[in-house]
Design brief:
With 111 residues, the protein is mainly β. It contains two helices and six strands. The protein is 12% helix and 45% strand. It is globular and about 35 Å long.
Length: 111
């Protein structure tokens, strides 16, 4: 038998959205994943190395923090320098692979 704490990566399918409050494109992570993220990263900041797959292309997002929104979902703010990709694929599904980053490895994190 395995323990969830042993996992270092998780794959999530979400939709690209836009949140005016953040003036940014985001992926709202489905609530079903909340307990998994709490187990993988129980303490703030919750930092992961993230790779996205969209339309058959691999997009390196890099190290980023995930946040809780008012609906109690985790959200990922997508990089603004790739806004043209997010605009073109607004409301489309995106696959995200989150790899756990140890706290001492979390330098140069983008928010």
């Amino acid at each position: 038998m395995f323990q969830l704490e042993e996992f270092q990566k998780i794959t999530v399918i979400g939709k690209i959205s836009y949140i005016t409050k953040y003036q940014s494109y985001v992926v709202v992570i489905p609530k079903a994943y909340t307990p998994i993220f709490y187990t993988l990263a129980p303490e703030k900041p919750r930092i992961f190395k993230i790779v996205a797959y969209l339309n058959g292309e691999r997009i390196i997002i890099g190290q980023r923090n995930i946040y809780k929104n008012s609906s109690d979902n985790f959200i990922l703010l997508l990089p603004k320098n790739l806004q043209y990709i997010w605009e073109k694929n607004y409301k489309k599904d995106i696959i995200l692979v989150f790899e756990k980053v140890e706290p001492n490895d979390s330098k140069n994190v983008e928010t």
